Amino acid sequence: MRRVRVGDEVIVTAGRSKGKQGKILRILGDERVIVQDVNMVKRHTRPNPTANKPGGIIEREASIHISNVMLYNPATEKGDRIGFRRLEDGRKVRYFKSNDEIIDV
Questions:
Q1: CA distances in angstroms from 74 to 18, 38, 42, 96, listed in the order given
Q2: What CATH class is the domain 9-96?
């Protein structure tokens, strides 16, 4: 079970986009994530008439290392550490370490 999942609201803790928050769009391998509207880069693309794609400068999200994001806790309005816990019915769930609130229901 991962500490962060696709769709989680995260806050960036290091790098050029420090302090920004957004949803996780994709997880690449074990170490990198793509966060919505964070770490934007400009990609210069050549037109491809066979694929009917125009050329130009496209702005899109680049990946950042998973250690540079923290799950956003709406109760404290900050990034928070995550722990794992087993419930009485045997399910393994994530919880915020600051206020013991369960994330996965």
A1: 18, 19, 31, 10
A2: mainly beta
